Amino acid sequence: MFPAAMSNSTSLSEEASVSSCTRVQDFGRLNQLASTIYPLQQQQQQQQQQKTIKKKRSLPGNPDPDAEVIALSPKTLMATNRFVCEICNKGFQRDQNLQLHRRGHNLPWKLKQRNSKEIKKKAYVCPEPTCVHHHPSRALGDLTGIKKHYCRKHGEKKWKCEKCSKIYAVQSDWKAHSKTCGTREYRCDCGTLFS
Known about the structure:
By secondary structure, the protein is mainly alpha-helical. The chain has five helices and eight strands; from the N terminus they run αβαββαβαββαββ. It has helices spanning about 1-50, 75-80, 95-105, 145-155, 170-180, and strands at about 70, 85, 90, 120-125, 160, 165-170, 185, 195. A two-stranded parallel ribbon has the order 1-4. The longest helix has about 50 residues, at about 1-50. It is extended. The N and C termini lie far apart (about 85 Å). About 5% of the residues are buried. The model is unreliable at about 15-20 (pLDDT under 50). Keywords: Metal-binding, Repeat, Transcription, Transcription regulation, Zinc, Zinc-finger. InterPro entries: C2CH-3rd_BIRD-IDD, C2H2-2nd_BIRD-IDD, IDD1-16, Znf_C2H2_sf, Znf_C2H2_type. This is C2H2-type domain-containing protein. Pfam families: C2CH-3rd_BIRD-IDD, C2H2-2nd_BIRD-IDD, zf-C2H2.
């Protein structure tokens, strides 16, 4: 009886070794397949990451040391439509826009051309002496930025939310607030409602 059981067990062990051998071969094939597919996926992920990497803006108040520091008056910063058409009295924020408008009246016009040598970085300081951005080392890097800063921090707040009576100096801030005011409500566990 013992030899028969032994022969039976050897056949089982042979089957086990054969099946484990085929499994090893299957895993070998899978590894080869994975090694060819994985680098492709890795390359695609790297390409997507490179596409999503955006050029970061320099932080406000950390200007380029080579930039020309410009101090504008509060009147200039708050001015809208500084460039006025002499025919129809329509105002524009930029001279280039006025020049394009002048074409409609068949008046002589000239657009400024930029030369690569002419481009120099500019930084703008706030005219308020008590402001953090008044010092040249904390100047703001673009004209729109300094205008909005001056309006927000030192300008008259004339835009008021009708729902919550919050006031804003910049119309775009007021519009953004008005879109979401009163729509976001958070309920505490105690039942109190917060907006």
